[in-house]
Amino acid sequence: MKLTFSLKFLFIFLAILIVEILIGKYLHDAFVRPFGGDVLVIILIYAFFRIFLKTKNKQLALGVLIFSFVIEFLQKANYVTWFGWENNKLMSTVLGTSFSIYDLLAYFVGYLICLLFKD
């Protein structure tokens, strides 16, 4: 792993960030927002790290997947209240407040998409 700067992944990150913001602001359905948004957030995190790190694709994708699973299981423990952020809309939205097995599935789909990127 070494430090680098990737314009390609910066553009991917910014494009997905814009899509995520638009989904969060304007889409209130039962599939794209909860499932598609969670798939995209894995790719978003992956792309962010790839802006600055040249590393093995599979290792980084797995690290992002593990991180997302940990956060999801912490949601089951209601960890947002540990920090006193339950009334903070931004932090509650970013960190999530409820556990869902479907979120884990969405994260795994995002992981599989990340594996398609080249080292």
Automatic annotation (TrEMBL):
It comes from the Bacteria. The keyword Mitochondrion does not apply. Keywords: Membrane, Transmembrane, Transmembrane helix. It comes from Pedobacter ginsenosidimutans. The chain crosses the membrane at residues 7-28, 34-53, 60-79, 99-117. InterPro entries: DUF2809. This is DUF2809 domain-containing protein.
